[in-house]
């Protein structure tokens, strides 16, 4: 993958050469959630041109970051063990970028994969250890997530299951996570709608998932 070459013998410069092209790290982010078919990757990155997606996939394969694999008669893209080593890097970048997000623009979307990784970045395992196991259903724009917290273990996925609280919101989720929006005020002002369950558990959610803005 030699699309960019900084001419420096350095680990950081080499890392940027491998994953620094536009869209490459977002492809890695989405594959950290689960292996995906080409069409699923395209759907999760709605603004990526098809020729750029194809080029980035080819480059990431050449770099040993991802690979093509057969799954139930279809081909999916998945991270290699080398590529999966990027998970703590991506989570740290998510926490760092959270500080500069600002207000959401009208054209910006929340995808299931992006929200799953944001929640992983915001998860506070030390706090969760002191709280009872809790299951949340969160409808975040078009993303519907099932979130299970049991001690320091976190599982976030699409799908359904028994939950302690289900709620719906949008970009306000980031203000809730940052602490700028108090859970009770979020409910009272309609920025978060409790669909079922105990509304006070939104406070537990905000304690369990927190990043300072």
TrEMBL record:
<keyword id="KW-0805">Transcription regulation</keyword>
<dbReference type="InterPro" id="IPR036388">
    <property type="entry name" value="WH-like_DNA-bd_sf"/>
</dbReference>
<feature type="domain" description="HTH hxlR-type">
    <location>
        <begin position="10"/>
        <end position="105"/>
    </location>
</feature>
<dbReference type="Pfam" id="PF01638">
    <property type="entry name" value="HxlR"/>
</dbReference>
<dbReference type="InterPro" id="IPR002577">
    <property type="entry name" value="HTH_HxlR"/>
</dbReference>
<dbReference type="InterPro" id="IPR036390">
    <property type="entry name" value="WH_DNA-bd_sf"/>
</dbReference>
<keyword id="KW-0238">DNA-binding</keyword>
<dbReference type="GO" id="GO:0003677">
    <property type="term" value="F:DNA binding"/>
</dbReference>
<keyword id="KW-0804">Transcription</keyword>
<protein>
    <submittedName>
        <fullName>Transcriptional regulator, HxlR family</fullName>
    </submittedName>
</protein>
């Amino acid at each position: 993958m030699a699309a960019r070459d900084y001419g420096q013998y350095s680990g950081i410069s080499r890392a940027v050469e491998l994953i620094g092209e536009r869209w490459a790290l977002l492809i890695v982010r989405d594959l950290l959630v689960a292996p995906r078919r080409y069409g699923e990757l395209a759907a999760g990155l709605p603004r990526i041109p098809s020729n750029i997606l194809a080029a980035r996939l080819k480059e990431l394969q050449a770099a040993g970051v991802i690979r093509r694999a057969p799954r139930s008669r279809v081909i999916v893209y998945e991270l290699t063990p080398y590529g999966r080593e990027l998970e703590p890097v991506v989570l740290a970048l998510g926490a760092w970028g959270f500080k500069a997000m600002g207000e959401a623009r009208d054209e910006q979307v929340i995808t299931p994969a992006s929200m799953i990784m944001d929640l992983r970045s915001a998860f506070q395992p030390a706090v969760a250890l002191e709280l009872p196991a809790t299951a949340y259903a969160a409808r975040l724009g078009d993303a519907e997530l099932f979130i299970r917290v049991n001690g320091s273990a976190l599982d976030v996925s699409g799908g359904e299951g028994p939950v302690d609280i289900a709620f719906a919101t949008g970009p306000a989720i980031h203000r809730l996570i940052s602490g700028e929006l108090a859970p009770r005020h979020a409910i009272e002002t309609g920025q978060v709608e409790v669909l079922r369950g105990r509304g006070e558990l939104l406070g537990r959610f905000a304690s369990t998932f927190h990043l300072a803005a």
